[in-house]
Amino acid sequence: MRVAVISDTHLPSLIRTPDQLGPDLGEFLATADLILHSGDVVRPLVLDWCEQYAQIVVALGNNDNFEDPRMEPIQFLDIEGWRVGMLHDLRPEDQPVSQMIERKFGGRALDLIIAGDTHVERLEYRDGVVILNSGSPTLPHHKETRHGTVALLEIERDRLHAEIITLGPSEGRPNPGTAQHIVIEERRLISASQAGIALEPGEQPRPITRGVAL
Fold first, then answer.
1. Is residue 40 assigned to a domain?
2. What does pLDDT average to over the chain?
3. Would you call 113 helix, strand, or coil by DSSP?
4. CA 192 → CA 6, 122, 130, 211, distances in Å?
5. For residue 197, what are the contacts with CB-CB under 8 A and spacing of at least 6?
6. Are 10 and 40 in contact (CB under 8 A)?
């Protein structure tokens, strides 16, 4: 199953839909079986725009002042046997995983945690859990409107490939994002890379930031 993960679209703003930045995000979403949005949508028209490509499930962001049946404060999903928890704000992202799960997800057993809010991409495998922040496709690293980052999950029963993908470029506005990937097989880290650099087996990608339904 191919799952597209996005966050912090913050539209409409200077642009109304991602089409005004170019076709990149739409072309990416068109490859997905499911879209997960980890919050700060701002207006439901963005969800409608995404849903032309695939079903969308959304976590409520602090700037999402509307109600929508596709959105909940925390989303729990089971995808091919992988237990997924998604919310908007995971800060601090460096807290111990057990503490993170207890404080943010009520102690529920999880294999994959998805969050947003920081606008900075993050991908790591820590204490048996994948932690993913896809960054923002429209306001990466809180810079002015431009192409940013998204994430792709390719999920099978005993295998997970997670990847941060940089979109664009946007003319005159460099994408500050960093491409990364990890592969988990039978709950073990098999390979990882960051910005095209292969890491040794078991070596973690350097975190970029410091800081279906069940």
1. yes
2. 90
3. strand
4. 21, 13, 12, 21
5. none
6. yes
Give the phi and the psi of residue 29 in degrees, each rounded to 5. Answer: -65, -30
Give the total number of structural domains in the chain. Answer: 1
Q: Which domain holds residue 12?
A: 2-198
Q: Taking the CB of residue 159, how many other CB atoms lie within 10 A of it?
A: 14
For the chain, the farthest-separated pair of C-alpha atoms sits apart, in whole angstroms, at: 45
Element (H, E) at 48: helix 44-51
pLDDT tens digits for range 53-68: 999 999 999 999 999 9
Q: Phi first, then psi: give them for residue 169, nearest 5 degrees.
A: -80, 170
Rounded average pLDDT over 9-36:
93
Is the whole model's pTM more than 0.85, yes or no? yes
Asked if residue 206 is part of any domain, the answer here is: no
